[in-house]
Design goal:
Helix content is 47%, strand content 9%. By secondary structure, it is mainly α. Strand 1 and strand 2 form a beta hairpin. Helix 1 crosses helix 3. The longest helix is centred in the last third of the chain and has 22 residues.
Length: 95
């Protein structure tokens, strides 16, 4: 499975919000979760009011594709990452 990369003290680019803060170090224990998250972060359930949630069947399909052994823990962690970013986006949009 291809994993993310690890860089320390690299200024954030526009994808990081342009804050100028260094990107956080990607710990080995988080690589699997972040890789799965990156695969499914665009698979959303939306309504007229915006994003409702992550499409869980898509998440389970990707976990199966990548043969994730502990799917319950992976599911909980990916869903947590998604909710964190959704809450941040909602704050920025004043929701």
């Amino acid at each position: 499975m291809a994993h993310g990369y690890k860089k320390k003290q690299t200024p954030c680019d526009d994808n990081c919000g342009g804050s100028g803060q260094p990107k956080p170090e990607l710990l080995p224990s988080n690589r699997e979760v972040i890789s799965i998250y990156n695969c499914v972060r665009g698979q959303l359930i939306v309504s007229t009011g915006g994003v409702v949630d992550l499409n869980y069947p898509a998440l389970f399909a990707v976990m199966e594709l990548y043969e994730i052994e502990d799917r319950v823990t992976c599911f909980e962690r990916v869903a947590g990452v998604f909710r964190y970013f959704l809450n941040e986006q909602n704050k920025q949009e004043g929701k």
